[in-house]
Amino acid sequence: NIHVKRSVPGGLDEAAIEAVRKVKFQPGKSSGQPVDVLLIIPVEFKLN
Mapped to the 3 state alphabet, what secondary structure does the chain carry? Predict the structure, then answer.
């Protein structure tokens, strides 16, 4: 599940979510078993 922590106007929330969805992740594991993991990914936009 992807959640935006701090929203910004101009459609950037949607762009950030789409960028994070494209990242490939390895599942979190403990003793070889999958576990839930909280991962915070900062997304920075630079507009010219």
Answer: CCCCCCCCCCCHHHHHHHHHHCCCCCCCEECCEECCCCCCCCCCCCCC
CA dist 12 and 45 (Å) reads: 8
Expressed as residue numbers, the domain containing 35 is 1-48
If one counts the domains in the chain, the total is 1
CA 47 to chain centroid: 20
Report the C-alpha gap between 39 and 43 in whole angstroms: 13
pLDDT tens for 1-48 read 899 999 988 889 999 999 999 999 888 999 999 999 999 999 998 888
